[in-house]
């Protein structure tokens, strides 16, 4: 290794050892990552993971002048970050001397004297088992022992914990006792445990969980009535096998246990006897059949069954998640006809009997929920510190420069974000005002909406882009959305109901619809299966698309027309949810930034109002309510002029728009989900022309004798100010 001088190839200790023949360069990844005088100035595919070769050469020359305080040899590229500490050392030497290297944020290093330590009380001293290797571990404040921050009785050997982190990766590394993830990872990173940003090793094994896909399919009742045998299973008929609701390892045909529908629960004899002995078992009453389920002596199971409801017992705490998409839209949030959930915006026509009063009420409820979101986001913003982080954004390539900025070492979502726009052609730069930040977040959300990470026309779901998975772009997209919400950017407003349910309730509780399928060919195939009117046409369609069904794991023999319903449902679940399992998990992890996902799961109804609905269209009433008018002797007539002017602008009787007015005062042409800070105000004073103070979000208006004078001054100032800014 050109930095530490060792030939050891031990990825667990020193990271991957990489050799670049064209550059005559061999380096340990951790040695490069922790070096004090080098930064990732290139893209991920440039040099060595973003470290430019020229920078590496400079770092080698810099380190060659420094002597390691441990082995006394030259080439010590790592220095302790503690103030006034001048110790330098090689990465392997630092490990031997029990230095701590933090694989996060600025990638800091601490020598053996200044390293962070965990605080123990005298009562905690003693010994217990390491919860990973189960060997004895002494409760001592030493380098080799670590304690869980969330569990008093969880103690680990540092070496055991490091191997566990390398195996589990960032998605699955958590406390082995209580399963806490966020608090546990934060403490372990502080104490020098490296948690790689990749999936768990066991998730990367091919067919590792093949045995778990096997479902028990056997009728175990004493007298089986099925002529085709105990192993015969025909879905959506009386010969469908129902498994025991408790153990799942015993089964029965519906007809063999006199069950009328799948919704009824069934227990095997073993489980029933256990519950009987414990006194907790009570025989369930049979559900009375509706008139539509009864025919002349023939049960409904002999007919083509109705569409199956989700396989969940009645009274389940999550049964409300599994309603139809139309019902979910009605229960999600009352909304205006222009602000229906994105996934249902086209498929739900406006009812002609719906009165204006009802739409007004729905609109009012939606605004109330958005106000709740505003308060929740303000709680999250408490984490943001005044320390600034500047993003240098290329106006011609927002996405690449944003991605580079979010991935830089010094970037922290808890710092105040400042945006500096530049243009590649003339290198002209703008200031880092609030207007730049608002414009950046608005452009970023628009790019995400139209990017290859999402698919669909209006209500969008995640797409499957293997290159994006490889580059961890789904995580970055989730992180950007979370940061935008907390830092005053716009809400996405393009999530489909299915995507929102997957994020909030988990993919197992989401119910995709045909509208969620963006691929035209796949959607046409599903429609052909769904609307097949005969068994022969259904079988013919399945033969034509057998390769697609096999890839989706849905290829099966079809013996009845009613089989198509479950088949369509399985295809939808595979294509919309299971197919994008890895991007979804990565996207969820990104949304956890600043605690946004946790708040989404706590307040799903209010967050759906900004994630599944387009932002509120500005109106005169909205803008009027946004501003607080400071009282003065001239406020009465001035306020009348102001409200009259807003109405003229809304009706199109002005050369400016409501967005122009908002941009003139605040630097933003939209109302952020978190609201404005400080809140916009209006004052009236004896000035010639209106003044917009974007630092204070204050609009200073002139006092005029007539409304026409007021209107002329407003239009002249706003139009020319914005025109000059654009130029």
From TrEMBL:
<dbReference type="Pfam" id="PF13771">
    <property type="entry name" value="zf-HC5HC2H"/>
</dbReference>
<dbReference type="InterPro" id="IPR035983">
    <property type="entry name" value="Hect_E3_ubiquitin_ligase"/>
</dbReference>
<dbReference type="Pfam" id="PF26054">
    <property type="entry name" value="PHD_G2E3"/>
</dbReference>
<dbReference type="InterPro" id="IPR000569">
    <property type="entry name" value="HECT_dom"/>
</dbReference>
<dbReference type="Pfam" id="PF00632">
    <property type="entry name" value="HECT"/>
</dbReference>
<dbReference type="InterPro" id="IPR051188">
    <property type="entry name" value="PHD-type_Zinc_Finger"/>
</dbReference>
<dbReference type="InterPro" id="IPR034732">
    <property type="entry name" value="EPHD"/>
</dbReference>
<comment type="pathway">
    <text>Protein modification; protein ubiquitination.</text>
</comment>
<keyword id="KW-0436">Ligase</keyword>
<dbReference type="GO" id="GO:0008270">
    <property type="term" value="F:zinc ion binding"/>
</dbReference>
<dbReference type="InterPro" id="IPR013083">
    <property type="entry name" value="Znf_RING/FYVE/PHD"/>
</dbReference>
<dbReference type="InterPro" id="IPR001965">
    <property type="entry name" value="Znf_PHD"/>
</dbReference>
<keyword id="KW-0833">Ubl conjugation pathway</keyword>
<keyword id="KW-0808">Transferase</keyword>
<dbReference type="GO" id="GO:0005634">
    <property type="term" value="C:nucleus"/>
</dbReference>
<dbReference type="InterPro" id="IPR011011">
    <property type="entry name" value="Znf_FYVE_PHD"/>
</dbReference>
<keyword id="KW-0479">Metal-binding</keyword>
<dbReference type="GO" id="GO:0004842">
    <property type="term" value="F:ubiquitin-protein transferase activity"/>
</dbReference>
<dbReference type="GO" id="GO:0016874">
    <property type="term" value="F:ligase activity"/>
</dbReference>
<keyword id="KW-0862">Zinc</keyword>
<dbReference type="InterPro" id="IPR042013">
    <property type="entry name" value="PHF7/G2E3_ePHD"/>
</dbReference>
<feature type="compositionally biased region" description="Polar residues">
    <location>
        <begin position="310"/>
        <end position="319"/>
    </location>
</feature>
<keyword id="KW-0539">Nucleus</keyword>
<feature type="region of interest" description="Disordered">
    <location>
        <begin position="287"/>
        <end position="319"/>
    </location>
</feature>
<protein>
    <submittedName>
        <fullName>G2E3 ligase</fullName>
    </submittedName>
</protein>
<feature type="domain" description="PHD-type">
    <location>
        <begin position="1"/>
        <end position="115"/>
    </location>
</feature>
<dbReference type="InterPro" id="IPR059102">
    <property type="entry name" value="PHD_PHF7/G2E3-like"/>
</dbReference>
<keyword id="KW-0863">Zinc-finger</keyword>
């Amino acid at each position: 290794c050109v930095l530490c001088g060792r030939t050891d190839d031990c990825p667990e200790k020193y990271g991957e050892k990489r050799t670049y023949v064209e550059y005559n360069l061999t380096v340990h990844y951790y040695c490069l990552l922790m070096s004090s005088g080098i930064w990732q100035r290139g893209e991920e595919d440039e040099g060595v993971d973003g470290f430019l070769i020229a920078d590496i050469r400079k770092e080698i020359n810099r380190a060659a002048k420094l002597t390691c305080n441990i082995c006394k040899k030259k080439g010590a590229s790592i220095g302790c970050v503690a103030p006034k500490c001048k110790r330098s050392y090689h990465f392997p030497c630092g490990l031997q001397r029990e230095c701590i290297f933090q694989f996060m944020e600025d990638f800091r290093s601490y020598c053996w004297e200044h390293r962070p330590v965990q605080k123990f009380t005298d009562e905690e001293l003693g010994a217990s088992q390491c919860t990973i290797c189960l060997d004895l571990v002494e409760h001592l404040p030493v380098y080799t022992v670590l304690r869980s921050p969330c569990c008093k009785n969880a103690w680990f050997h540092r070496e055991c914990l490091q191997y566990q982190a390398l195996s589990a990766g960032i998605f699955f590394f958590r406390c082995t006792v209580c399963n806490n993830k966020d608090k546990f990872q934060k403490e372990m990173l502080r104490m020098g445990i490296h948690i790689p940003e990749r999936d768990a090793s066991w998730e990367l094994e091919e067919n590792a969980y093949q045995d778990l896909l096997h479902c028990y399919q056997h009728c175990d009742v004493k007298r089986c009535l099925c002529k085709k045998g105990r192993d015969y299973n025909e879905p959506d008929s009386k010969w469908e096998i129902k498994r025991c609701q408790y153990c799942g390892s015993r089964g029965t045909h519906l007809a063999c246990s006199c069950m009328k529908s799948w919704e009824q629960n069934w227990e095997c004899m073993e489980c029933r006897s256990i519950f009987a002995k414990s006194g907790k078992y009570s025989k369930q009453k049979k559900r009375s059949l509706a008139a539509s389920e009864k025919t002349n002596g023939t049960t409904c199971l002999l007919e083509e069954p109705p569409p199956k409801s989700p396989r969940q017992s009645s009274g389940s705490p999550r049964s409300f998640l599994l309603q139809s998409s139309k019902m979910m839209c009605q229960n999600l949030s009352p909304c205006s006809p222009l602000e229906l959930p994105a996934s249902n915006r086209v498929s739900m026509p406006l009812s002609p009997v719906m009165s204006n009063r009802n739409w007004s009420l729905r609109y009012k409820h939606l605004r109330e929920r958005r106000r709740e979101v505003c308060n929740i986001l303000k709680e999250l913003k408490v984490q943001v510190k005044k320390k600034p982080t500047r993003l240098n954004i290329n106006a011609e390539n927002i996405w690449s420069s944003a991605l580079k900025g979010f991935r830089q070492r010094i970037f922290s979502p808890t710092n105040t974000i400042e945006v500096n726009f530049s243009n590649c052609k003339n290198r002209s730069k703008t200031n880092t005002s609030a207007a730049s930040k608002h414009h950046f977040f608005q452009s970023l959300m628009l790019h995400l909406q139209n990017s290859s990470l999402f698919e669909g026309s209006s209500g969008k779901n995640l797409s499957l882009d293997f290159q994006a998975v490889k580059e961890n772009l789904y995580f970055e997209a989730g992180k950007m959305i979370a940061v935008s919400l907390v830092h005053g950017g716009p809400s996405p407003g393009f999530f489909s109901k299915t995507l929102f349910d997957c994020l909030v309730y988990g993919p197992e509780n989401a119910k995709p619809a045909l509208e969620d399928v963006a691929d035209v060919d796949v959607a046409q195939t599903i429609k052909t299966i769904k609307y097949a009117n005969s068994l022969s046409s259904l079988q013919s369609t399945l033969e034509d698309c057998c390769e697609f069904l096999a890839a989706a794991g849905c290829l099966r023999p079809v013996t009845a027309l009613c089989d198509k319903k479950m088949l369509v449902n399985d295809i939808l679940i595979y294509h919309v949810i299971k197919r994008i399992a890895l991007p979804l998990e990565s996207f969820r992890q990104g949304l956890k930034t600043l605690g946004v996902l946790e708040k989404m799961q706590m307040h799903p109804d209010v967050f759906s109002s900004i994630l599944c609905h387009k932002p509120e269209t500005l109106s005169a009433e909205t803008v009027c309510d946004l501003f607080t008018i400071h009282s003065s002797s001239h406020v009465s007539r001035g306020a009348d002029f102001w409200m009259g002017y807003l109405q003229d602008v809304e009706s199109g009787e002005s050369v400016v728009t409501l967005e122009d007015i908002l941009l003139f005062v605040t630097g933003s042409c939209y109302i952020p989900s978190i609201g404005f800070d400080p809140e916009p105000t209006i004052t009236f004073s004896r000035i010639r022309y209106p003044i917009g103070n974007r630092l204070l979000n204050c609009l200073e208006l002139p006092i005029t004798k007539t409304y026409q004078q007021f209107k002329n001054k407003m239009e002249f100032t706003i139009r020319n100010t914005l025109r000059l800014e654009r130029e």
